[in-house]
Amino acid sequence: MKHSLWEILDMAGGAMWVILAFSVIVLAVALDRAIAHWGYMRKARALHENVTRGLSRGAFSEARSACERSQSPLADVFLVGFERNGRTKSANVASAVQRERVRVLAELKSRTWLLGTIGATAPFVGLFGTVVGIIEGLGSIFEEKKNDLAIVAGPLSEALYATAAGILVAVEAVIVFNYFNQRLAKVALEIKLLAEEFIELLEEAEEEKPPAKSKGKSGKKFKRADSDDDDDDDDSDDEDDR
């Protein structure tokens, strides 16, 4: 028994429309996350190389300009380090960088929860549609007053479409969800390593900065020298008097 697409969607008490909506959401989230992940680490590695090159030469402004020009989300992590550097303790700089790293990764993980939710609920929606179809089939037997399997076979076979569709969408959602979760775990680990290396380079570059000269101290030294000269002059005058 063949059915058209619209006939199949009208089966199982409207559950098929819900499953169709789930399928569209899965495809939309998968496309959105694929775009977000596309070139993510390539841009991050390129930015890290430019920043490393600048910090190794002590060129803070050059390294910061590379972050400001970059389109990588890792640039936000590095910019937090540049803004806090020299204004607070190195431990506070590291904490601020790590907090920004967590925020950036949270944005990359956004909307993937929809995949997990659909993967868990789609089979139950399909089962609900099947149960509704079975109830309708049994109701037709009661109305016909005949214990004939042919009367209920048609509604039951149509109701099973909902279970099959629900399982299919759930499998699709779970596969996509696991793929992006696995990819996100790799990205999170590499971003963590890049952030930690950036903090080390930032601290080393800060330590290698030449110390600032203080005019006050040099003035005091000249004063001491003048006072010593004055003492020498006083001693020479005493000797002449003698």
Helix content: over 70%
Which range does the strand content fall in? under 5%
Number of helices: 9
Instruction: State the shape.
Output: rod-shaped
**What's the order of the H and E elements?**
HHHHHHHHH
Point out poorly predicted stretches: 214-229, 236-242
Q: Biggest β-sheet, characterized?
A: none
Distance between the termini: 136 Å
Overall tally of domains: 2
| Class based on secondary structure composition and strand pairing | mainly alpha
Q: Number of DSSP strands?
A: 0
Radius of gyration: 36 Å
Arithmetic mean of pLDDT = 79
SSE diagram, text form:
Blueprint: H1 5-9, H2 15-37, H3 40-56, H4 60-69, H5 74-84, H6 90-109, H7 112-144, H8 149-207, H9 215-241
What would you say this structure looks like, in words?
With 242 residues, the protein is an all-alpha fold. It folds into 2 domains: 203 residues, no CATH class; 29 residues. It has 9 helices and no strands. The chain is rod-shaped. The relative contact order is 0.14. The C terminus is likely disordered.
Identify the notable features of this structure and list them briefly.
242 residues, mainly alpha, 2 domains, 85% helix, 0% strand
In short:
The protein has helices spanning 5-9, 15-37, 40-56, 60-69, 74-84, 90-109, 112-144, 149-207, 215-241.
